[in-house]
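Researcher: Next sequence.
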Amino acid sequence: MTAIDLRSDTVTLPTERMRERMRTAELGDDSRDGDPTVRALEALAAERTGKEAAVFVPSGSMANLVALLAHTGRGGEVLLDAECHIARSEMGSVAGLASLFHRALPAERGALDLAALEEAISPGVTPNRLATALVTLETTHNAAGGAVLPLAHMEAITRIAHREGVPVHIDGARLFNAAVALGVGAERIAAHGDSVCFCISKGLSAPIGSLLCGSAAFIQRGRAFRRMVGGNLRQAGVVAAAGIVALEEMVERLAEDHARAKRLAQGLDAIDPSLVAASEVETNIVMVEVAASRRTATDWAHALAEHEVLAGPARRHRLRLVTHRHIGDAEVDRAIEAFGQVWRRFVN
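Model: Next structure:
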């Protein structure tokens, strides 16, 4: 029996159409004269996000790092929420590599507290505080279970930041999940940031890569910082070709992943309501709280693996489950059955 891998949507494999486009991609040296397939992907990414230009980078973490560097030039303070990916999962690059300080603001499911932002933002250096160099947002919000930031909230954040001359960066690793959930084009979300990045290697199923999008001048600076951090590639059209297919063919089907995440959450709720807040599942991530079982998330992950279900511990008593195109209704039903068996084993 094939294992049901719910650890992440990064486990998705390229489609046959992607493999064919990769095999026949027109190639060049992207860091010299330019790779034509990479350039085509970058143009498509810029079009889809409503920005002037885009740059292809190997990963979402690098996209965020390049954005931090290109916006700030190193130095100053970044305002963000403590649970965002930049703060939690990028190995301290905001300080260690970008030479920036960061200040965590209170947030509810990824949405920054507006009053706290008003209080914290500082357009210039004063005798007792740093200048604010950047405000960052994340949608969908990974640690908040795939929560989608409301457009009105993003507009309010940008209005406050721009009033003080501070740019806004959107970490949109799952930008198209957010767009599908809101029923809008990705450009409607991206409009509320001076820059936005997104991954093609998650639910969109391409094997590698992310795009950072913004103004032409910003992306020109971004290319310089991409080189600084080792992100220049050569015949990158081999993987960029899959990214083109991802944007052309894989966005609308994300709604299927969302529906299956909701179905999974409802099934877990039926086992015991303490396991999941089904009403909070907006996209393709389901957070499962296992504290009531008096076992850790690691215990649960080991037990579920015995039933051929792979799940990732997110905290001591929390599992993160992520649906993707390799998870169909049958896999959801099998996962629910496995959770039920482990629940009965641990609780009884």
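Model: The two ends are 27 Å apart (CA to CA). The chain has a mean pLDDT of 96.
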